[in-house]
Amino acid sequence: MPLYYIFQMGIPEKSFMSLGASLLLLLSLSAKAQVPNTDVPPPWAYPVDPPGLASPKDDGSLRHVPDSTQAFTLNQVRDGFVSPDWHPDSHPAMPEIVVHGKKPGVMACGYCHRAEGTGGPENASLAGLPAAYIVQQVLDFKSGVRTTSLPDRAPQKNMIALSKVVATPEIEEAAAYFSSLKPKAIIHVIETDLAPKTAVHGWHLIDLKTGEKEPIGQRIIEFPEDLEQFVSRDSRSQFTAYVPTGSVEKGKVLATTGGEGRTIQCTICHGPDLKGVGLIPGLAGRSPSYLFRQLYEFKHGARAGVQAALMKPTVEKLTEEDMIALAAYAASLQP
Predict the structure, then answer these.
(1) 3, exposed or middle or buried, with CB in 10 Å at 0-12, 13-18, 19+?
(2) Alpha-carbon gap, residue 106 to 100, rounded angstroms
(3) Considering the domain boundaries, does residue 172 fall inside one?
(4) What's the whole-model pTM score?
(5) Tally of domains in the chain
(6) pLDDT grade, residue 39 (50/70/90)?
(7) Exposed/middle/buried for 280, CB within 10 Å: 0-12, 13-18, 19+?
(8) Residue 305 domain-assigned (yes or no)
(9) What is the DSSP letter of 194?
(10) Within a domain: residue 113?
(11) Interval 59-84: pLDDT, tens
(12) CATH number, domain with residue 119
């Protein structure tokens, strides 16, 4: 039965989730890793740290972030086996795998995805995603059906590596924790013809703050508003995403109508407000850089996991401009 009939019939959530789990199981049994497209993905969406990029040395001083009494040194906030917890009263107790990971091969989940699951432009926001969906993504990384269009890019390379050694009960613990969190509205989408000049640092873009502007073209320019707060891995870091003028409305048309056959309405599966339904993840308020990469990876075969069969007819006709528009529209919504 097509998914849009399921939603229109108003099947109870419990029954839908059972049906969805069965569907995902069938798809996972048939999913095979595809050979990713050899096209070079757009550099703005796949930032790569330049060779020899120097990191500042820790001088022993304590770092602070707004609305927190906690304090950490630079070495503490960049230790991959520590999840800096700036706001411990704002979330449930973190499982050990989220706080410290498991040496030597599994970094703390909260190090990359932050203690409150907000992530950043370089990786996924996990807060509020269905637990079963999170588990399946890690299993797809583990089995090799979910890869990346740029294999040497550290965030995805590290995720693939740790997925091979993390235990399933630990995946489930982390997934249950992140699923219990409420997503935060941290993305400010601004339409423009000119964007600030940026550089790559930490596998994401940073604002050079020179006051110089350059044509945005067909790009999304997303960066943390306070770089030091983001480097400190504060879950409350805010981000600005500059997108091409008119892209939000164009994305809305594609997401809600399909654009006269250009794609399938995102709202059919992800809900009218793109906040997700049942096992289908929410898209609203998520990093547009990340959303663009996922559309690109579905189209070019790097994501061939259990959702790929459902996403294939959605992405097969999309241009990069369309993907930018869809990502801009979804990111502009409240999560």
Answers:
(1) middle
(2) 9
(3) yes
(4) 0.88
(5) 1
(6) confident
(7) buried
(8) yes
(9) E
(10) yes
(11) 999 999 999 999 999 999 999 999 99
(12) 1.10.760.10
What is the radius of gyration, based on Cα positions, of the chain? 19
Q: Which residues pair with 221 in a beta bridge?
A: 242
Residue whose pair of structure tokens reads 């940026």 in the numeric block: 198
CA distances from 69 to 82, 99, 162, 235 (A): 18, 19, 32, 14
Q: Which domain holds residue 89?
A: 3-48+57-186+243-332
pLDDT averaged over the chain? 90
Residue 255 falls inside a structural domain: yes
pLDDT digits (tens, 9 = 90+) for 223-259: 999 999 999 999 999 999 999 999 999 999 999 999 9
State which amino acid sits at residue 311: M
**Are the C-beta atoms of 235 and 86 separated by less than 8 Å?**
yes
The position carrying tokens 């789990």 is 21
**Strand, helix or coil at 232?**
coil
Strand, coil or helix: 233: coil
**How far apart are the C-alpha atoms of 181 and 19, rounded to whole Å?**
25
Residues in the chain: 335
Looking at 144-287, list the stretches that DSSP marks H as alpha helix, in order from N- to C-terminal side. Answer: 154-163, 168-179, 227-231, 247-257, 266-270
Residue 81 and residue 77: Cα distance in Å, rounded? 10
Q: Report pLDDT digits (tens) over 22-38.
A: 444 434 433 444 444 45
Q: Residue 125 corresponds to which amino acid? A: S
Element (H, E) at 192: strand 187-192
Q: Residue 214 corresponds to which amino acid? A: E
